[in-house]
Every structure is written in structure tokens, then in C-alpha cells.
What we know:
This protein is mainly β. The chain has one helix spanning 2-14; strands spanning 25-38, 45-59, 62-76, 81-95, 100-115, 118-134, 139-153, 158-173, 177-192, 201-216, 220-232, 235-251, 256-267, 286-296, 301-314, 319-333.
Amino acid sequence: MKIPLIICFIIFLHSFQERLTAKNFKFLLSGEAGPYYSTSVSNEFLARLSGRIQYKYSKDRTHFLLKAKVTPELYGPQNPIQAIKIRSRIQLSKKGEIFTWQGHLHHQFHYYHIKEFNIYSQHLLFLGGKLNWPLSSSHLFGISLDYLYREIISRPANRLDSIIGKFGLNVDIGVYTRVAIDVYIERYLIKAQQIEDEHRENSGYRFGPQLGLQHRSTFILNLTYHFLFISSELSSKTTLFHGIQCVWGKYLNRKWSLFFFINVLIQDILDSQIPDELTYLPLNNENWIYLKNGYDINLDTELFLKIGYTQDKIFREDITLSGWQLLLGFNYKF
């Protein structure tokens, strides 16, 4: 299934190549480094470099977005660990008289080289679309449908195929605040390799509410909470998943800014009735909580100090890259 989706991605991009003019491109280069205090690995330093590219095109209520990000990471100096994280998204939307539609394709690739011959990688691919209907000046109803493909390459490997549906309501409260209430439903199928077990497949559902809050005034606040039930054909037990994402930020004056970031994913302890290779694992293997204090040198350059805790869960290898970081970094826009 992955190859046909990649072909669709290329065809989708090719149809817009005549519109790719340089004036609508944006480039961002970021770097950060500093001490890394970990109890899971014997490393005391972290360096991270990130390159981003974004292209936007709009005409006659039609909007096209293409963006990509590449981030290599190095943990050291003892027992060096290398990682590279790649994300890309392509999106096309059009605002009609009655509703707004959007089609999107998202790809994510994480690769870790932890020890000699100890390699872990994860591919994630979303393909789907959504429709939004305004019910009034302050109420918006939305519905979306996505196909999800994930492949974990490790020892052992597995593959996840899912159909995800979501519908809900966005309500504007005043001028600066929007509340979102959605229902999330997912049908999944997991196939495992390299295991000696009569059960090489597992299927089930993930379902539950998703709540969101957006506020923009003298500060910004984006908050999302997921509460999902996970069922499986291999077990009578229903497990729970909690996901919290939060961004709070404020410009203290024309130069200084302060931002607070949270991404925490919590899932019940694995059910002993289900082999680890057939257990539904969170789509994102990263957790973080950190504070960032930035200083704008000019319109294109920012220096920042970041302090916080991060965790990369390496599924299947029972390894976690977790620890406190104190990083000095920069952002530069071309």
C-alpha cells in the first residue's frame, strides 16, 4: 500500500509544479546544543540541527501548501546515538459558497542508530480529506476521513493500517477564543513479522472524544486533549489512551518572548494477552515539556534558551532516550 500512496503524492505535487515560484518560498534554519542529563543513556551532550522549507500559493479561494522539515540529532560523547527525523506535508483546500474542502498528505520518518547493528526506524503516512460547513457566524461543523499507514522496522517489525473518521463542532466564543469538540473513531489492523505465534494479526478500534481550545489576544494558547478507548480482537480488556498537547506563548516586549510547550502521550500498560508486536502503540513516539525564552536580533534572526524534559520511546528495543536538556539555539529565516 505504501508505494501507491507515494505515487499519488508525486502526481499530486506534479499537478502544481507550474505554480512553484520562488517568491512564495520560505526557508528556516535552526540549531541548538547543550548539556543533556539522562538516566536512560550515558550521554551528556545533545546537538540538533533543523532545516525547514515552506511554499504557499493562493488564487480564487484555492490554497496550496507544501512544507518539509529535516532534523538530524546527535547524542554524545559516550556511546554516541544518531537520529534523523523527517516530516513533510502537502495540502490543497478550496473555500466554496456552502462548504470548504481540503485534501492532505502527510509523511513522517524517524530513524535511530543507537548501537552497532541496533537500528530502529518508523514510517508514518496519512492520506485524507475533510469538509467544513459553517452553521452560523460562530459555529462550524467539520467531518474528516483519513487512511493511515505505519511501518516499524526493528526486531521484530510490524505494520499498521487504519481508517480514521472524525466529526465535530467548532464554536467561537467572543473574538479571541475558539472551542472544538470532536468524536474520533479508528478501525485498525496490525500485522507482525518475525514472531513465532499463531496470532500474526490483530485488529480493533480506537474511539473517544477530542477537545480543543484556541485563544489569541495578548498571548496565544493552543490546547488539545484526546481521551480514547482501545479495543482488540485478541483481548476482552479495553485500554485507555490520553494525549495532551499545549502551546502557550507571549511576547514580553518587541524583542523578548516566552513560550511553553507540552506534548504528553499516556497509554495503559500493555495487555499480557496480546503480544507486544501486535499491540497498538501511540503514533508519536516523542514526549516533551519545555520552556523557551527567545530574543529577536532582527526580523530574520532569533536566539533562544530552552530548558525542559524530552523522551523518545524506541518501541521494540525497550530503549528510551529521556532526560533534561538545557539548550542554546538560533532560528534564521532566509
